[in-house]
Design a protein that fits this description.
- By secondary structure, the chain is α+β, with helices and mostly antiparallel strands.
- The protein has three domains: about 70 residues, Uridine Diphospho-n-acetylenolpyruvylglucosamine Reductase, domain 2, CATH 3.30.43; about 150 residues, Uridine Diphospho-n-acetylenolpyruvylglucosamine Reductase, domain 3 (2-Layer Sandwich), CATH 3.30.465.10; about 100 residues, Uridine Diphospho-n-acetylenolpyruvylglucosamine Reductase, domain 1.
- It is built from seven helices and 20 strands.
- The strands form six sheets. A five-stranded antiparallel sheet has the order 6-7-12-10-11, with no helix packed on it. Strands 1-2-5-3 form a four-stranded mixed sheet, with helices on one face. A four-stranded antiparallel sheet has the order 13-19-18-17, covered by helices on one side.
- A hairpin with a 4-residue loop joins strand 10 and strand 11.
- The longest helix has 19 residues.
- Bound molecules: uridine-diphosphate-2(N-acetylglucosaminyl) butyric acid.
- Uridine-diphosphate-2(N-acetylglucosaminyl) butyric acid (EPU) binds next to strand 13 and helix 6.
- The site of uridine-diphosphate-2(N-acetylglucosaminyl) butyric acid (EPU) has 18 residues, from strand 13 and helix 6.
Length: about 350
């Protein structure tokens, strides 16, 4: 079941070269148990890899890469207002979104065209166009590979926040998400507030949009702005948008009155893309890696590069933003280095 010395370059959306000492796909607790007891890998490091769209592989991986193989999308409960849907961790997220809007359900339309699998959605609490995974999540199930026990966390227990959750904590490193459940609405209010969404619907002369219309428009906007990982290696936003105090914002705005910023609770969210662009990095190429020409938050791999080169570029950007604005950018993808 475990294959050795497997190249997983095609399993990460950056297309970074990486040789995994061991690789396996597992779809049951029984299979996981035998894999965790395999003499060759019993004590080795493990990496749980889903769709590979939010990971930087900084070199070869000396341990065991485990790819979950849990499938199925089904309605598990419903009433006159809502439906509760479960999805296996290995279902492609966008496929779930399309299925839900085709049924006419509200809740996932703004999260269309986000790369990756359903099991990764809770990790970083995926979000876009004014919606977040946590808005619809009711529970997440996982298996702890250290104890080989199954668990389920309610949405509250998942500790969701902006691009983070309990699943990103070091204690959750060996938790393999097997499935998610979501509550979707039969009727709902569409969130069209994010710049560009209402405008595009209007341009298409859609007066009373359904969730499927919103999903289609958001897919089109994303395709315009973000490079397709099948064509140009990337992992979407490379840095989180920094959340800072009003004092920090006031100090920067004294010099840059046009800096975009948004209130979030009693703090302010800044645009990492804007900060990076101000430092002159947009469209800049450094050998096989670079910053996308249309979006400064997206680092790209042109091919024949390494995770290390990508991380060096990210460090240079981070340093420049810190020197110019005093803001410490934090990467969004999971960085795997040994
Ligand atoms: N901007 C620039 N330069 C750029 C791009 C953007 O200055 O090159 C400024 C503009 O002022 C723009 C603002 O940044 O109005 C916001 O840009 P955008 O709408 O593209 O959103 P973002 O903050 O860069 C976030 C998410 C994206 C998500 C979009 C849309 C994070 C880290 N990223 O990006 O998520 O698709 O909003 O909701 O929160 C991802 O996580 O991989 C991802 C793509």
């Amino acid at each position: 079941m475990i294959r050795t010395n497997i190249d997983i370059q095609h399993l990460n959306s950056f297309g970074l070269p990486c040789l995994a000492a061991g690789f396996c796909q597992v779809g049951s607790l029984q299979a996981l148990t035998s894999i965790c007891e395999d003499a060759g890998f019993k004590h080795s490091q493990r990496l749980i890899l889903g769709g590979g769209s939010n990971v930087v592989l900084a070199g070869d991986f000396p341990g065991l890469v485990v790819q979950p193989d849990w499938h199925g999308i089904q309605i598990i409960d419903q009433d006159s207002q809502s439906v509760t849907v479960s999805a296996g961790a290995s279902e492609v997220w966008h496929k779930l979104v399309i299925w839900s809007v085709e049924q006419g359900y509200y809740g996932l339309e703004n999260l269309a065209a986000i790369p990756g699998w359903c099991g990764a959605a809770p990790m970083q609490n995926i979000g876009a166009y004014g919606a977040e995974f946590s808005d619809v999540c009711t529970s997440v199930s996982y298996i702890d590979l250290d104890t080989l026990s199954q668990h389920s966390l309610t949405s509250d227990q998942c500790q969701f926040d902006y691009r983070t959750s309990i699943f990103k904590k070091p204690t959750a490193q060996n938790w393999l998400v097997t499935g998610i459940t979501l509550r979707l609405q039969r009727q709902g209010n569409l969130n069209l507030d994010y710049p560009g969404v209402a405008e595009m619907l209007q341009r298409q002369n859609i007066q009373q949009p359904a969730p499927a219309d919103v999903a289609a428009v958001i897919t089109a906007i994303r395709q315009q702005k973000l490079p397709d990982p099948e064509v140009l290696g990337n992992a979407g936003s490379f840095f989180k948008n920094p959340i800072v105090s009003t004092n920090t914002v006031d100090a920067i705005r004294a010099l840059h009155p046009d800096m975009p910023h948004w209130a979030t609770g009693n703090k302010i969210k800044l645009s990492a893309a804007w900060l990076i662009e101000q430092c002159g990095w947009k469209g800049h190429r450094k050998g096989p890696v670079g910053v996308h020409r249309d979006h400064a938050l997206v680092l790209v791999h042109y091919g024949n590069g390494s995770g290390r080169q990508l991380l060096e570029l990210a460090d240079c950007i981070k340093q420049d933003v810190f020197e110019q604005f005093g803001i410490d950018l934090q990467p969004e993808p999971k960085i795997i280095q040994n």
